[in-house]
Every structure is written in C-alpha cells, then in structure tokens.
Amino acid sequence: MSQNEYAQLVTPDGAPVMLQGVTATGDLNGLLFEARVEQRFCNPTDKNLEVVYTFPLPWGAVLLGVDMLLGDKHLTGAVVEKKLAEARYEEALSEGHAAIMLEKNHDLSYSLNLGNLAAKETCVITLRYAQALQF
C-alpha cells in the first residue's frame, strides 16, 4: 500500500502522531453524496511540533473544505497563490502562531501543513467533500 492510499499525520521526520478517533457523517441527495470526516489527533510530546497531514479523497470526489480546531482556536484558509501562502505560513510560524497550509499533490492527494501544534494539544481536522455516485 502506498503512503497516499490512507490519511496520516506525521512530523517532518516521519514519526506518526497518534490518531485518537474518527467520526464520519454524510448526506445522500439523489446521486450526490456529501461527506464530513473528522479526525482527532494529540501531540503527545512536551514540545511544539510542525506536522503534515496527508490524505487522499475517494475517486471522483471534490474537496469542499478543510477546518482545523486547535483547543479553542478555529483555523480555516483561503485560496491564494502558492508563494504567498508559503510566505504567510512561515511568517505566522516565526511569530509563534499556529498556522495551516493546504496543497494538492501531483498524485491528487492533499497535504496539510500544521505549524506550532502545542505540546499535549489536541487538533481536530475536518474534511468536507462531495462525490457523484454511479449505479
């Protein structure tokens, strides 16, 4: 199984961050299925981490949005040019703030960088996507 066939949250050196739980819900309207997948992770270390969450979508699905909850902070993003996104992300990290940056990979999976996940802090990642179903 290749790395991009399942979701995973890892540190930059590849160490996995333990998954605490998953909740999946969906709505079916005719042949359109809208899903919401919520995954909970915790930084078990005594230091802030930068982590990368990599995930695929089902075949033919379209990503509608990604939300991140860090303690009581809600992070969401906007689509901007890649260089500007990288600059804003690095600036937020250098100021000690938590930040996220999402990008689509060449294999059609996605990578979400999360900087400054605080020690012992829980993060909740919520993916929302839609998929046209076939008989």
| Helix residue percentage | under 10%
- Low-confidence spans: none
What is the distance, rounded to the nearest whole angstrom, between the alpha carbons of the first and last residues? Answer: 27 Å
Number of strands: 9
Structural class determined from secondary elements: mainly beta
Q: What percent of residues are in strands?
A: over 45%
Which strand order do you get reading across the main beta sheet? 2-3-9-5-6
Average pLDDT taken over every residue:
90
User: Main sheet?
Assistant: 5 strands, antiparallel
Order of helices and strands: EEEEEEHEEE
SS summary, helix count:
1
Using only C-alpha atoms, the radius of gyration works out to 15 Å
Assembly level: single chain
Question: Given the C-alpha coordinates, what overall shape results?
Answer: globular
Architecture blueprint of SSEs:
Elements: E1 8-10, E2 19-29, E3 32-42, E4 49-55, E5 62-70, E6 73-75, H1 82-94, E7 99-104, E8 110-117, E9 122-132
Antiparallel strand pairs: 1-4, 2-3, 3-9, 4-8, 5-6, 5-9, 7-8
Would you summarize the structure shown here?
The chain has 135 residues and is mainly β.
Provide an overview of this structure:
The protein is mainly beta. It is built from one helix and nine strands. The chain has one helix at 82-94, and strands at residues 8-10, 19-29, 32-42, 49-55, 62-70, 73-75, 99-104, 110-117, 122-132. The strands form two sheets. Strands 2-3-9-5-6 form a five-stranded antiparallel sheet, with no helix packed on it. Strands 1-4-8-7 form a four-stranded antiparallel sheet, covered by helices on one side. A hairpin with a 5-residue loop joins strand 7 and strand 8. The protein is globular, with a radius of gyration of 15 Å. The two termini are 27 Å apart.
